[in-house]
Design brief:
Blueprint (H helix, E strand, L loop, with lengths): L8 E8 L11 H10 E8 L6 H6 L5 H15 L3 E4 L15 E2 L2 E3 L3 E4 L5 E4 L7 H5 L1 H28 L6 H29 L4 E4 L6 E5 L2 E5 L8 E5 L5 E5 L32
Parallel strand pairs: 1-2, 2-3, 3-5, 7-8, 8-10
Antiparallel strand pairs: 1-11, 4-5, 6-7, 9-10, 11-12
Helix pairs in contact: 1-3
The structure holds manganese (II) ion.
The site of manganese (II) ion has 8 residues, from loops.
């Protein structure tokens, strides 16, 4: 995973999503390092690159986040084709669909033809997230629910202790949430595979759920770029058309080596009970 510092790997295509620039959780330094050491003829930014939702709530834009944008624009100047598919967090960019900024094409979705002729439908994927689609306020709530739950956990238990009740376990609650999350991921994946089939594509490449994957679902190749906040994952297309999910370190890489903890095993059904952290 970790390359010697002075090497750059070139791919036919790079797909990357969910950088969430403009949030405190954003791994800008890691993204810069990733952009420095990886290049491609075509780069797809598969949504939620800039987090407009959080920026609207409170402005947070350090220099490193600017550097990421500059680095992307520089790649275009040096000849890369760059396609930006806005997601729900950067939906402000959807008003510019069909236009291009600094050579970055902004599109609603795309069809990527791989070197082996295989056609992939490329989209962010929030259109197929039932929570986001049917009630935006609920999605925004979900975004804050985790922070809020941690806050409640601390204060709620102080009150319980004062009243003589036992400790209410946050992790037990989170485990329950994980079971639901696993069901959610499974249905999201099936929906996207079905949509690719409807569009006459052999595969689909998306982001949004922060869960990197590369697997066959009912004859469709389902590919998820994951995210650059927790997984720090991305997808590459090699010169022969072969796709691969790769990881670029993690913020905790110094504590423990990470070996693709979240990539769904091809043999493992999506609804299997797996240990993942609550998103
Ligand atoms: Mn999203």
């Amino acid at each position: 995973m970790a390359k010697p510092l002075d090497t750059t790997t070139r791919y036919r295509t790079i797909f990357v999503s969910d950088m969430h620039l403009g949030t405190r959780g954003c791994q800008a330094a890691l993204i810069l390092d990733f952009l420095r050491h990886n290049d491609a003829d075509t780069i797809y930014l598969v949504g939620d690159i800039i987090d407009g939702w959080r920026l609207r709530a409170s402005w947070y834009w350090p220099q490193a986040h600017n550097d990421v944008i500059q680095k992307l624009l520089r790649k275009v100047r040096h000849g890369a084709r760059m396609v930006f598919v806005p997601g729900n967090h950067d939906e402000f960019a959807r008003q510019f669909i069909g236009q291009s900024f600094g050579g970055i094409e902004i599109v609603r979705n795309a069809v990527h033809v791989a070197a082996d002729g295989k056609r992939y439908f490329v989209l962010h994927g929030d259109e197929f997230d039932v929570v986001v689609r049917h009630s935006k306020w609920l999605a925004h709530l979900g975004d804050w629910a985790y922070d809020f739950a941690l806050f409640i956990n601390t204060h709620f238990n102080a009150v319980r202790r004062f009243l003589g009740f036992g400790y209410w376990s946050f992790s037990a609650w989170a485990k329950l949430k994980v079971k639901n999350a696993v069901n959610f991921i499974g249905s999201f994946e099936r929906e996207l595979a079905a949509e690719a089939k409807r569009r006459g594509a052999e595969g689909v490449i998306c982001g949004h759920i922060h869960h990197p994957a590369l697997r066959e679902i009912e004859g469709v190749t389902y590919v998820n770029t994951g995210d650059f906040v927790e997984s720090c994952s991305f997808v590459v297309e090699h010169d022969d058309g072969r796709l691969e999910v790769l990881f670029w370190g993690t913020p905790f890489a110094k504590l423990a080596p990470v070996k693709n903890p979240k990539v769904a095993d091809a043999d493992e059904p999506a609804d299997a009970e797996v240990e993942i952290e609550a998103a």
